[in-house]
Amino acid sequence: MEPIEEASSSVLRTRSVERKTFVVQELTQDKDTASQTQPHSERSSLLGSSFDVHPAVTYGGITASYADHSETVPTSDFRMSSEEPLTWSEEELKRKLKYFFMNPIEKWRAKGKFPWKLVLQVVKIVFVTLQLCVFGSDGYTYELQKQNTGTSFKHMFLKDWTPLRDVVSYPPSTGPYAVYTKPDFYGNVDNVVKVYSDITNISLGTYCYEGPNCTMTSLSFCRQEFNKMIAFNQSVTFDSHRKTICHEIPSLFPEGDPRWKQFSIQKYLADKNDTIAFDRLIYAEITFTLKTIFLKSLGSNKYPDCYNFSIDVFYNNKEHDGQVLVTLDTKAEKLKCYHNGTMNPEDKWGYILRQILNCFIIIICILSLLLCIRCLAKALFICRETNKYVKLTQNKALSAQEKMEFVDMWYCAMIFNDALIIGASILKAAIEQRTVESDQYATCAILLGAGNLLVWSGVLRYLGFFSKYNILILTLKRAIPNVLRFTLCCILLYSGFCFCGWVVLGPYHIKFRSLSSTSECLFAMMNGDDLFATFAITNTNNNLIWWFSRIYLYTFISMFIYVVISLFISVIMDSYETVKDHHRHGTTLSRIQVLVADFPENSCSSFYQQRRKQQKSLWQWIVMYFKK
C-alpha cells in the first residue's frame, strides 16, 4: 500500500487551491493492463496527457484540433470522492455529453429514436403559416372597412374634398386641407350640420343617429380662445389665459327637413349673443355620433358588426398664420348587435374549421414549449455534472463562456415564439367568437407576425446541422460583436447628422420637418433612395441655407455610402473569411469540446444499439400480454 499512499500524497500536493480529502481506490488490474498495452500515439485523456498526434475533430460542423500545450497537465489514475460526489462515471458522462451535442439526425442514428421534435417544428411551421394567411385576409378586410368608412365621412362632411386627397403619396400631390377666409370657415361648419341632418337619406352607407329608434341627436360645437387679444398698429394687448366655450346644436327640425338647408352657424351664435373672434381663436371643433353596421364579405363568420362612430371635425388655428387646418377624425366603438337571421352553412363550417385550427396550433405550441423547457433543464443538469467532474479532475470550475455552450439559444427563441403564438391564437379565437373587441386585430397581428417570423427563423437551426449550409449562422455569430461595436460609432455620427439637418433644414424642407422624418430621410439616402428629389425640393430663397443644404447632403452621402457601408461590408466579410479558415484548417477546442471529442462516436452508437436490442418494443409487450 505504500506506493498508493505516495501517489495519493503527490495528488494532494498538486491541488494547492482547494484542500480536499480524497479516498484513493486502486484501479482494477484489467484497466492497468489495457493502459499498458495501448499504443502511446492512441492515448487521449482530458486530464492532460500529451498528444504525440493531434487528430482533426469535427465539432458542430467545423473541423478543429486539440490545443497544443507546452506543459503536460498531470493526470490522475484514481477514483476520487468529495462533498459533491459524481452522479455518473467518467465514461457515462462523456457518452452523455457526446449524445447531448449531437444533432437530431445523429441522435436518430445513434439511439434509433425518431426525431419527434424536428417533426413537431415542421408541422408547427406549416399550420402557423396557414393560420397567418387566414388571419391576414380577415384583418385586411376589417381594417379596409374602417378606412373606407372614414373616407366616406370626409367626402360627405368636408366641403370640396377631392379624391386626390385620398391617395397617400410623398411628397403630397396636394396641399393641406384648410380654410383661409371667414366665409369659408362658416361655410365648412354649415356643411357639416346640413349633411348630418340628412345623412340617412343621402348616404349610400347604412347609418343612423344615436338616439332611441335612431332619432336625431344634437351636435356639439366648441371652441377655445384667449381671454383677450387686441392688436392695433404696433401695440398688442394680450391675455394668455384660455377659455373654452361650447354650444349644443339641438334638433331644431326633423331629420331631412328642408329648413336645415338654411342653417347658419354664424346666425345661430348671434342668437346666443356670441360671436367668434378669430384674432383670439385657438381651435374650434364640432362633434357628433353615428351608428353603422359592417356586413362582412369575408371573415370568420358572416354576422354583421354594429359600431358607434364618434366623429370630430377639428379646425386648428394655433399658429395664427391665416391658415386654419381642417381634419376629420373618427373613433369606432363596437356595440352589441342583435341578430335575427340565419347563417350560411358554408360560413358556419368555415368558422368551425378556424376554431379547430386555433386549438390545434395551441396544442402544438404547448408541446413544443414543454419539450424545449425539458431540453434546457436537461442541459442545466449535464452542465452541473460536467462542472463537478472538471472541478475534481482539473481543480478548476467551468467558466461562464464554457457553461453557455450547454445553452442552446434556439430553444430560448422557440420558447418565446411558442408563447407569442399561443397568446395570438387565444386572442384570434376570442375575436372570432366575438368575445373581445375587433380593434384587437392589431395586437393579434403583432403577436402572430412576430411569432411566425421567429418560427421561420428557427428553420436556420436545422440547416446549421449541415456544414455546407450553416455558413450564414456561423458568420453572424462571428460578426455580431464587431458589428455592434461598429454600429455604436455609426449611431453617434448618424445622430449628429440627424439633429443638424432637423434644426437647420426643417423650416425649408418637407423631409426634415420632424426629427423622425429627418432620420427616415437620411436612412433612405444611405440606400440611394430619392437622392435628386431631396436636393431639388429645398424651398428657400436664403442663399446661406441653400449652400448649407448642398454641403450637408454631399458630406452625408459621401461619408455613409462610400465609407460607412463599405466598412460594414468589410467587417462582415472578415468574419466570413475567418469562418472559412476555421472550416479548412480547424480551430482549438474548448474543454467541453475536448470532452465530447474524447469519446468515440462509434462507441456511443454501439452502446445505444445494444441497449435498444435489450429493450422490448410496445408491440412486443402487447404480444407477450396476449400470449399469457
TrEMBL record:
It comes from the Eukaryota. It catalyses: Ca(2+)(in) = Ca(2+)(out). Residues 34-47 have a biased composition (Polar residues). Its main location: membrane. CDD domains: ELD_TRPML. The chain crosses the membrane at residues 360-381, 409-428, 440-463, 483-505, 551-573. GO terms for molecular function: NAADP-sensitive calcium-release channel activity. Keywords: Cell membrane, Disulfide bond, Endosome, Ion channel, Ion transport, Membrane, Transmembrane, Transmembrane helix, Transport. GO terms for cellular component: endosome membrane; lysosomal membrane; plasma membrane. It is a multi-pass membrane protein. Residues 28-47 are annotated as: Disordered. Residues 447-579 form the Polycystin cation channel PKD1/PKD2 domain. It is found in: Cell membrane; Endosome membrane. Residues 146-337 form the Mucolipin extracytosolic domain. Pfam families: MCLN_ECD, PKD_channel. This is Mucolipin-3. It comes from Caerostris darwini. The gene is MCOLN3.
